[in-house]
Amino acid sequence: MSASFFALLDDIAVLARAAAASIDDVVAGAAKASAKAAGVVIDDAAVSPQYVQGLTPKRELPVVWKITRGSLMNKALIIIGIMLLSTWAPWIFPWLLILGGTYLAYEGAEKVWHWIRPAHSGEAGVEQVVERTATDEKQMVSSAVRTDLVLSIEIMLISLANIEASSWGIRLATLIVVGLLMTVAVYGTVALLIRMDDVGFWLMKKPARWLKSIGTGLVRAMPWVFKGLTVVGALAMLWVGGHILLVNLGEVGFTAPYEVVSSIVGAVSAPGIVTWFIDSGLSAVFGLAWGAVVMLVLAVVARLRFKKPVTH
Fold first, then answer.
1. From CA 116, how far away is CA 270, in angstroms rounded?
2. R_g (Cα) of the chain, nearest Å
3. CB 82 within 8 A of CB 157
C-alpha cells in the first residue's frame, strides 16, 4: 500500500517537472515570437488610435474596450484556424496573407486619397466628427476590428513560424500567450494615449508651477500627437501591407516585385537603418500602388453596378 502511494507521488513529481518544463517552453517561445512580431505590433498601435478620434471623452474608453474584445475574439478564431490549417493545409497561408495585405494596402491608399482630395472624400469636419451617433460608433468599431483582424493574422502567423516546439499543445499555448500579450500591449497603449489630455488637465490644477507647465504641454501636444499617429497609421498600413504582398506574392510564384525591391536594397551600401528605411519605403510605395489599383477596380465595379439603364 505504501509502495503504491510513493509510486503515485513519484508520478506526480514527474508530471509536475514536465508541466514546469512546458511552461518554460511556452514562455521562451512567446518571448521569441513576440520579438519577431514586434514590428507589426508597433504598426497596430499606430493604426488603432485613429478609430477613437472625434469621440466625446466619456465614450473613448468604452469604444477602446469594444475594439479590445473584438481583437481578442479575432485572435481566438485565428489561433484555432491556423492551428488546424498548419496541420491540414499550410499551403493556404500565403494566399490568406495576400488577401490581408491587399486589405491593408487598400485602406492605406484610401486614406492617402482622402488627404489629396478632402473635398471629394466624404470626410467629416471637426464639428461633425465630434457628434458621433451610435451607428457611427458601431461602424468605427467594426472598421477597427476588421483592420485588427488582418494585423492579428500577420502577428499570429509570424509567431507560429518562430515557435520551435514540435508539440502541438506547446505551440497552441504559446500562441495564446502571444495573443494576450499583444492585445494588452496595443490597446493598453491606445487607452493611455487617449487619456493623456486628462492627465494634462489634472496636472494643470496642481499648485506647483512646473506641474502646471507639464500639464499645459501635454494638453497642447496631444492633438498633434494624434495627427501624427494618423499619418503614421496610414503609412504603417501601406508599409506592412506592401511588405506582406511582396513576400507572399513571391511565395506563390510571382517573384518579380520582391526581386526588384531586394536588388535595389542590396545595391545600396549604407548602414542597416538606412537600408531598412529604403526597404520600408519601397514596400509602402508598392502597397500604395496595389491599393490604388484595388480602389480603381472597386470604383469601376461600383459604377457599372449602379449605372442607370439608358431609356429610349
1. 33
2. 24
3. yes
pTM: 0.71
CA dist list (Å): 19 to 34, 161, 172, 271, 311: 22, 23, 15, 45, 75
Amino acid at 128: Q
For 3-39, the pLDDT digits (tens) are 554 454 454 444 444 444 444 445 444 454 444 444 4
User: DSSP character for 207?
Assistant: S
Q: What crossing angle do the helices spanning 168-194 and 38-47 adopt, rounded to 10°?
A: 30
Contact (CB, 8 A) for 30 and 156? no
Q: Which three cell numbers stand for residue 92?
A: 493556404
By residue count, the chain amounts to: 312
Q: How many helices (H) and strands (E) does the chain have?
A: 11, 0
- Write out the three cell numbers for 80: 484555432
H-type alpha helices, 195-271? 196-204, 209-251, 256-267
Joined together, the cell numbers standing for residue 37 give 512580431
How far apart CA 205 and CA 211 sit, in angstroms, is: 9
Closest by CA position to 165, among listed 258, 243, 86, 58: 86
Nearest one of 93, 98, 88, 95 to 78, comparing CA atoms: 93
Task: Decide: 194 and 225 in contact? Cβ < 8 Å.
Answer: no
End-to-end CA distance of the chain: 100
CA 96 to chain centroid:
15
The DSSP secondary-structure symbol of 208 reads S
Among candidate residues 239, 235, 234, the one with its CA nearest the CA of residue 287: 239
**Could you read off the pLDDT of 134-177 as tens digits, one per residue?**
677 788 888 888 888 877 887 788 777 777 767 788 788 888 88
Asked if 284 and 231 count as a contact pair (C-beta separation under 8 A), the reply is no
Residues 6+ apart with CB under 8 A from 145: 67, 70, 71, 74
